[in-house]
Specification:
heterodimer; A: about 280 residues; alpha/beta; Rossmann fold; four-stranded antiparallel sheet; 9 helices; globular; B: about 375 residues; mainly alpha; ABC transporter involved in vitamin B12 uptake, BtuC; 17 helices; about 0% strand
Chain lengths: ~280, ~375
């Protein structure tokens, strides 16, 4: 299992695996200051953010802590005021939009409801960055789409129109679309929110399978800290637009963190496995 | 297992290429039949009286159809080879009007369909986004104030439309545009141009000028001939060709701005480019037929209700349905009132409006594209 070794000033941590070999980061945010045109002052300030290669990183934090904003900056949907984002060591700006879409798949939190499109057609749109203006679909496209549909387990609804699906099935269809993009890095903004438990697990299992089989790097915003603690390899905890802590869940998830960041009193059990048992909301928030 | 999978893959391959559904084929065939029938009715009536048989014989007269010189004269304005009086009346006076109807119908429908996807708005059409009112104002200003420029009317109409849409885009632009801002800006610009139009009427001292102007602003195919076909055919073919090729871009755009960007589309650029194509298409129609109301709004809805929301199908459907409806409406405009001809825009407005309301009542999901 990975461990973090903290420097004395606690500014910069370096992740190593069991043999002490440093793990590369797929995505790095450096000296980021993020704001929206309508906001006064930066919404997110973050000296350094690492999304480790071939691992699942969960971004957690309360509403308005800046998770989505950070994800937007990582996916080039939001231009940082200062700082840079690098993917596999290269600056995001050096990619054309299509080149980037072949490296980095993004699923936004809100997907506009589009009723009259079949699931299969939607998944085929995931091949957009791999096709030219006049290109038809080729064999590689078909393979990627079949694989994505199989991974997401939505073969039986492939011909159904999106408008007739439940929220969970819709989400799986959108995820299949991003999977068909066939990228090494995947950013997902709250893919499990509003889903029933069954579909939450199906979404998470799909992500996990993708990570284990294809070595895809995943950064995912999760609403539920207990779920994130069990599911992710690394946690990034956000609080008031700043990084509160990050590292493997065993180290990050403490009763102190739950009080400071989420404003809840909770019991954290580390044996036999990490478990968060929320008790009640703390009064002073 | 691997074999079974790859077989499944091939089956899917075949399926993919056939986005052309039976409904679409049937719809296009039906539209073609309607266009032909309406066209035949159109050429059979007129001041020079002919029997149906005579008129149709003239239409399908092989000595004209297979005469290269005749086509050269039609399309390039060279001297007409000798032909019978019937042929001249049909081929030179009545058929070109049908062709202009076909061209304007197709371009307006395609233009409306593109605008609806680009703005992701049900109500979008060349109208809403200012193109029509801008063109209408330019025409009116030319007729009333700069009457010397009248020969360049089509060009001026197109310029006016482009200018108005440019203004709309500039107003809506704020580090990027959004569908809602585009439509709001369009409504405002529309209003301003319409006020300007109404203001201009007060400066027209000649009743004839006013009538010409009104015909332009309501849209009319009266008096159109090969001249108009020559003006319109090339830009129409270009814009329709690009629209058909860009159908997949429109499909991706329909997924929403964020998703389209995540998939690697340069959303602003594609949106601007396709809007340009839609303006070109609308300008073609406006240049030869004036501002035919409601058409660009209603036709895409009719097609969407029949063949579904996939733009690959929708575009093809529009290219067929637009001509069918325009030629039919023009038959009504020319022949319904006996002696006097109405502008075709009056007919499309009168039929299109109620039909649109009917669709709205019938379809539960009208709010969604």
């Amino acid at each position: 299992m990975a461990r973090t070794q903290r420097n004395t000033d606690r500014e910069r941590t370096r992740i190593t695996d069991d043999n002490g070999v440093a793990i590369e980061s797929a995505l790095v945010g450096d000296g980021l200051e993020l704001s929206y045109p309508s906001s006064d002052g930066p919404v997110v300030e973050c000296t350094r953010l690492d999304i480790p290669e071939e691992a699942v990183t969960a971004l957690v934090g309360p509403n308005g802590s800046g998770k989505s904003t950070l994800l937007k900056a990582l996916s080039s949907h939001l231009e940082p005021d200062t700082g840079t984002v690098r993917i596999h060591g290269e600056n995001l700006d050096s990619f054309s939009q299509k080149e980037l879409a072949r490296e980095l798949g993004v699923l936004s939190q809100e997907n506009d409801s589009l009723g009259s499109i079949s699931v299969e057609d939607l998944v085929y749109h995931g091949r957009y960055p791999h096709r030219g203006f006049f290109d038809g679909t080729d064999e590689a496209d078909h393979r990627a789409v079949e694989r994505a549909i199989e991974l997401a387990g939505i073969d039986e609804i492939r011909d159904t129109e999106l408008g007739q699906l439940s929220g969970g099935q819709k989400q799986l269809a959108w995820i299949a679309m991003v999977l068909a993009q066939d990228t090494d890095v995947l950013l997902l903004d709250e893919p499990t929110t509003f889903l029933d438990v069954h579909h939450q697990f199906r979404v998470l299992e799909t992500i996990r399978q993708l990570n284990e089989e294809k070595g895809v790097t995943v950064a995912v915003i999760l609403h539920d800290i207990a779920q994130a603690a069990r599911f992710a390899d690394y946690l990034v905890a956000m609080h008031d637009g700043e990084l509160y802590d990050w590292g493997p869940p065993e180290e990050v998830v403490t009763e102190q963190l739950l009080a400071d960041v989420f404003g809840i009193e909770a019991v954290v059990e580390y044996e036999p496995e990490l478990q968060v048992l929320p008790k009640r909301a703390l009064p002073d928030r | 297992m691997a074999e079974a999978e790859s077989v499944g893959g091939y089956a899917a391959t075949e399926q993919r290429d056939s986005w052309v559904t039976g409904t679409l084929v049937l719809f296009c065939l039906a539209s073609t039949v309607v266009t032909v029938v309406a066209g035949l009715i159109q050429v059979s009536f007129g001041e020079y009286s002919m029997t149906f048989l005579q008129a149709w014989k003239a239409v399908f007269n092989p000595t004209v159809i297979f005469d290269l010189n005749a086509w050269v004269s039609f399309l390039f304005g060279t001297e007409r080879p000798d032909m019978s009086t019937n042929s001249i009346v049909v081929w030179n006076l009545r058929l070109p009007r049908v062709f202009v109807g076909i061209i304007t119908g197709a371009t307006l429908a395609v233009s409306g369909a593109i605008f609806q996807a680009v703005t992701r708005n049900e109500l979008a059409s060349p109208f809403i986004l200012g193109v029509s009112s801008g063109a209408g104002f330019a025409v009116l200003a030319t007729l009333v104030v700069f009457s010397g420029l009248a020969p360049f009317l089509p060009l001026i109409a197109a310029l006016g439309g482009t200018l108005a849409f440019g203004v709309v885009y500039a107003i809506a632009w704020k580090g990027g545009t959004s569908p809602v801002r585009l439509v709001l800006a369009g409504v405002i610009v529309n209003m301003v141009f319409q006020s300007l139009q109404q203001g201009l009427f007060f400066f027209a001292d000649d009743l004839g000028v006013v009538q010409t102007a009104i015909a332009w602003i309501t849209g009319s195919l009266t008096g159109t001939g090969w001249e108009e076909v020559r003006i319109a055919i090339l830009p129409a073919l270009i814009s329709i060709g690009i629209a058909l090729a860009g159908a997949r871009q429109l499909n991706v755009l329909m997924l929403g701005e964020n998703t389209a960007r995540s998939l690697g589309m340069r959303v602003e650029r594609v949106r601007f480019f396709l809007s340009g194509v839609a303006i070109l298409a609308a300008s073609v129609a406006i240049a030869v037929a004036g501002v035919v109301s409601f058409f660009g709004l209603v036709v895409p809805h009719i097609v969407r209700n029949t063949v579904g929301g996939d733009y690959r199908r929708l575009m093809v459907g529009c290219v067929f349905a637009g001509p069918a409806l325009m030629v039919t409406a023009d038959v009504g405009a020319r022949l319904a009132m006996g002696g006097t001809q109405m502008p075709v825009g009056v007919v499309t407005g009168l039929i299109g409006g109620p039909y649109f309301l009917y669709l709205m009542r019938k379809q539960q999901s009208m709010g969604e594209l």
